Amino acid sequence: LPSKCYLLLALGIVAIGLVSCQPTSSAVAPARSDGVTGDPKHGEELFRKRCSSCHSLDKEKEGPMLRGVFGRKSASVPNFKYSDAMRAASIIWDGDSLDKWLTDTDRFIPDNDMNSTFKKADERADIIAYLQQLSHQ
Ligand code: HEC
After folding, report:
1. Which of 33, 65, 78, 120 counts the highest number of beta carbons within 10 A?
2. Which pLDDT belongs to residue 1?
């Protein structure tokens, strides 16, 4: 074979190598349309550690029950004694509003009764994903 052919052959092998090294699309997590990106399993664990002292899923404690809170209007658990600030807020709890609330409750709704902040964005995302999953059960 003329040496030109060996060169082409070598280029061909390199090209095949490059193509087969591309990550397959199944290795990439599918984008979710609702913008919630957290890990609900880890969120459940965080919920137990960081929220369950004041919140249960199905009964009132110091805070209102939280099952189904994702997609719910703020201050809508009957009989729970919300603060006046919370009653006046009129928010739909979605990924965006929950993230703002958990980042700094007082900044989002001044004079509310939940004095907690959750500084880590990835932990907030995981907790929010968990709350969202509960709403779909
Ligand atoms: C120290 C107690 C306490 C902790 C810890 C706490 N909360 Fe709360 N939470 C409250 C109280 C009290 C309210 C009611 C606030 C009001 O009426 O102003 C509330 C309200 C809420 C609401 C609004 C519910 C509604 O029906 O409108 C959400 C959502 C919420 N909390 C989520 C969380 C999450 C998620 C965590 C953990 C990351 C958490 N909270 C940790 C006490 C707490």
Report:
1. 65
2. 67
Distance 37 CA to ligand 1 centre (A): 21
* CA 122 to centroid of ligand 1, rounded, Å: 19
Give the pLDDT mean for 47-73.
96
Compute the distance between CA of residue 129 and CA of residue 93 in angstroms, rounded to an integer: 12
The alpha carbon of 64 and the centre of ligand 1 are apart by a number of angstroms equal to 7
Instruction: Please compute, for residue 35, the number of CA atoms within 13 A of its CA located in the half-sphere on the CB side.
Output: 6
Measured in whole angstroms, the distance separating CA 135 from the mean position of its chain's CA atoms is 13
According to the model, what pLDDT value does residue 55 have?
97
Residue 127: CB within 6 Å of ligand 1? yes
Q: Who wins on pLDDT, 4 or 101?
A: 101
